[in-house]
Backbone:
């Protein structure tokens, strides 16, 4: 029987064979984790990435509240916080004293009806100073070991910008639909335009654009599918899911999401 | 027990690779377990066997050779090279690194300059080193 192999054979692969000329170049080790990600997500009907290329525009509150609203409507819902540097969904949900359960992987704890996974469980509220390649490794690890089970929706809270996390989600979760968040700021509009152009070029479905903090000084986005009024009471409701669901913010988001989620996501439009 | 999830990834990757390279039967897979992630070797090996028995019978003649890989680090700030043995961590910190090895940057520091900005140059987690089989 002939035999073939892949990958380096330890230190032997680097040692020249007598009379055999130079040693064969060692192949890189294979990363097995991406192979199992599709299986982990196979029982999830829709994956929605809440994105926005500026920081501080309300992605985390939007993603967390959307997950709470969907769960309250009776949908099986998961929330995955992939904003490693600025993880804050656990603060919005008030997810204290919970931790994933080890069972053939990691089962996310259920917080106010939402299956929730975040790097905050492992970083213990300390800084997570990761370079790009490390971020990518951590994203792949979480996707490979998290056992979501059956869900109607998985909402992903994305970090700001187009970076390793965004590129990994595009690569590893091809079914993802984008829900973009912006604000009335011209700066936010500028980056929104660029993001939509990229999603369009990559054929990533755009569910819609939500303008947050609407009504404050600035310029309304012509692209907005819906607007979230600035809600002064929102800050006090953070960490209390029942109160979050009673805010004007949640009422607006529920109305917009109801309309956007009824139809399949279309291509991004320039 | 999250070893099962990683064992499943090794088996799926092996099956994918064998199909693409037309390797049949697969005789041996070399799996490196990095020291940093501290995967339980017994649970991992048991999971591999059970998963093959239950769902991947095409790999039933395959031997999984487990290779322990020591962790190594190089500081990006001061270029110090160091090993895991010189780093102090609590049991809780070790457990968090076990689940997500990148938490090393949260809990561990370069022993020389105390920077968290270091490369994990070896022994991070689970990887496949070789897949051998007939062709």
Residues:
């Amino acid at each position: 029987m002939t035999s073939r192999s892949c990958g380096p054979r330890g230190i032997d692969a680097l040692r020249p064979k007598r009379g055999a000329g130079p040693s064969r170049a060692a192949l890189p080790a294979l990363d097995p984790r991406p192979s199992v990600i599709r299986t982990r997500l196979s029982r999830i009907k829709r994956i929605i990435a809440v994105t926005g290329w500026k920081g501080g525009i309300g992605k985390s509150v939007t993603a967390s509240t959307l997950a709470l609203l969907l769960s309250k409507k009776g949908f099986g819902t998961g929330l995955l916080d992939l904003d490693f540097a600025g993880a804050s969904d656990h603060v919005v949900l008030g997810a204290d004293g919970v931790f994933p359960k080890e069972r053939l992987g990691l089962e996310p704890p259920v917080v106010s009806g939402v299956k929730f996974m975040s790097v905050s469980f492992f970083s213990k509220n300390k800084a997570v100073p990761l370079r790009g390649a490390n971020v990518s490794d951590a994203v792949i690890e979480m996707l490979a070991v998290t056992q979501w089970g059956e869900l109607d929706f998985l909402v992903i809270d994305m970090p700001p910008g187009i970076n390793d996390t965004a590129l990994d989600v595009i690569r590893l979760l091809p079914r993802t639909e984008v829900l973009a968040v912006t604000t009335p700021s011209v700066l936010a509009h500028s980056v929104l335009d660029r993001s939509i152009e990229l999603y369009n070029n990559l054929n990533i479905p755009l569910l819609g654009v939500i303008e947050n903090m609407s009504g404050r000084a600035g310029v309304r986005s012509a692209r907005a599918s819906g607007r979230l009024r600035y809600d002064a009471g929102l800050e006090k409701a953070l960490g209390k899911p029942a109160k979050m669901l009673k805010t004007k913010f949640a009422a607006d988001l529920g109305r917009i999401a109801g309309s956007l989620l009824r139809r399949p996501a279309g291509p991004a439009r320039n | 027990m999250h070893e099962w999830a990683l064992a499943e990834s090794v088996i799926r990757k092996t099956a994918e690779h064998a199909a693409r390279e037309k390797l049949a039967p697969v005789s041996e897979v070399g799996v490196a377990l990095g020291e940093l992630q501290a995967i339980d070797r017994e649970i991992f090996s048991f999971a591999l066997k059970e998963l093959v028995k239950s769902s991947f019978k095409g790999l039933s003649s395959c031997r999984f050779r487990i290779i322990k890989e020591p962790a190594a680090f190089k500081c990006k700030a001061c270029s110090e090279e160091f090993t895991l043995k010189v780093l102090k961590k609590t049991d809780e910190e070790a457990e968090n690194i076990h689940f997500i090895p990148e938490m090393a940057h949260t809990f561990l520091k370069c022993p020389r300059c105390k920077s968290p900005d270091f490369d994990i140059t070896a022994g991070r987690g689970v990887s496949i080193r070789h897949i051998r089989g007939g062709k």
Summary: Strands of chain B lie at 26-34, 63-69, 72-75, 81-83, 118-122, 126-134. Chain B touches chain A at residues 1-2, 4-6, 8-10, 12-14, 16-17, 21, 23, 27, 30, 32, 67, 92, 96, 99-103, 105-107, 116-117, 120, 124-135 (CB under 8 Å). Residues 44 and 61 of chain B are 18 Å apart (CA to CA). Chain B has a mean pLDDT of 95.
